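The data are set out underneath:

___
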Amino acid sequence: MVKIGGSCLSNKDDIRRVIEIVEKSMENGAKPVLVVSAFKGVTDELLAQAQNALTTGSNLERIEKLHYEFIENLSPRMREEAERQVLRLIHQLELLLGEVSSSRFLSSIAKDEILSYGEKLATEIVADYLTDSGFKAKPLWDSDAGIITNSNFGNGSILDKSIHFVKEKLRVPYLPVVAGFFGRDEEGRVVTLGRGGSDYTATFIAAALNCEAILFKDVDGLMTADPKIVKAAKTIRKINYLDALELARYGSKIIYEKAIIPAMKAKIKIKIKNFYNPAKETIICDKSEGEETAVSSLTNLAKVDVISYLDITDIATSLLSELSRLDIYPLLLTQASRVGISLITNRSTFEIILRTIQEKDKNAKVKVESNLGLVTIIGGKILEKNIASILKLLFDKRINIHAIEQSASRRNLCILVDENDVRTVIKVIHEHFIL
């Protein structure tokens, strides 16, 4: 299973590199499944045009021009076929955007279908290049590739029943080129899978087919810290599923949290490779050789403190149940006292939390702190360190700590600070733990 990220597909020359990767993967007689993201920048442009359709009207000129530029290197016969495919998909997209313009309403259903066209266009073109290079390739997407989802538009999850369908649809004599990022629900509607959804598509398919998932990106792999903040950050060579899951949950933008779960359940490896230098990689697997420790961070957070003289456990249970129904999960939830709980969540969701609390107990006292950031240290080295020494380091830097929480496994430590202090905390923690 090979997945090519959209950041690796910025021009037509990058597709030549994709063909080389496919050729390399077939050297030992294997037949890969290829998962493809939309070309670089296309999803953002589709989202912008969907919004424009509500006001000034959409314009697909940039998207059309970009995809026609991608097919310039095809042979004349295949270029003619590719032009027909691009024209067909652009026409479908224009009709969808036209419906949004006439109704002046962009539903979550329409939005997901519009955004899926980035992957549809990319898949058609990549399959054409592979066919032009002598492979028997065919583009597939959503249910035709076996990807059946729930109906959580914008952040869908692939249903377990898809395992059977993937095995059925992808054990084929040709080379399947599968569109990542979206599937189709049981009512036949397109559902996108959220940030990093193409990784999720790839690892789910790899788990169903019991093979490793190779995710090609424009980076060397997972890092011990954000290299934009810590210049001395290094590539993590091997990491176990649980630590990788924590790293994704608490801020890493290299791997999507949902993408790790299918691989972890099936016990298959995920390899994150550099598209331009495949020798550079991170392996996510069951057991890592040599413990790696990393620092991850999130910003734009809020802390919600709740005091209620009703059953605080009952309120916490009701709150988590309602948030789960909306596919919202607090980063941390702790019982601060017999009558109080504290939640740390994305600032965009705390209004939902407040409303849910008020519905359960109108007399509850609620305090909200905004403009916060969460720095999390993940990995085995935490067990070797004295938390008091970490706190002293931060106090010496005059860092205001709003909360600190260690996991039951003691393999991660979350520190809640002012948003403006996040970069400083990352640097201090990275030097203390890793350097």
In short: Residues 76-103 form the longest helix (28 residues). The first strand starts at residue 2 and ends at 4.
